[in-house]
């Protein structure tokens, strides 16, 4: 069964992960986030209980 031979597929996987890790990922991480986290405190929403008409 030739699909069990890891020789060609391991090299392809290793090459693709190295390409992603060393070339593509640093380029993607240089972009500034479009929605930066804000420093204001989170407020809990005020909720009111629902009144069910059949109870």
Automatic annotation (TrEMBL):
Q: Which residues form a coiled coil?
A: none
Specify whether Transmembrane is a keyword of the entry.
Answer: yes
InterPro entries listed in its UniProt record:
ATP8_metazoa, ATPase_protein_8
Ranges for region Disordered? 36-55
What biological-process GO terms show up in the record? proton motive force-driven ATP synthesis
Q: What is its main location?
A: mitochondrion
Q: Which UniProt keywords apply?
A: ATP synthesis, CF(0), Hydrogen ion transport, Ion transport, Membrane, Mitochondrion, Transmembrane, Transmembrane helix, Transport
Q: What molecular functions are annotated in GO for this chain?
A: proton transmembrane transporter activity
Pfam families recorded: ATP-synt_8 (PF00895)
Which residues span the membrane?
6-24
User: Would the keyword Mitochondrion turn up in this protein's UniProt record?
Assistant: yes
**Where is it localised?**
Mitochondrion membrane
This protein's membrane topology, according to the annotation, is:
Single-pass membrane protein
| GO terms under cellular component | mitochondrial membrane; proton-transporting ATP synthase complex
Q: Which family does it belong to?
A: Belongs to the ATPase protein 8 family.
Q: What is this protein called?
A: ATP synthase complex subunit 8
Task: Tell me the organism.
Answer: Prunella rubeculoides
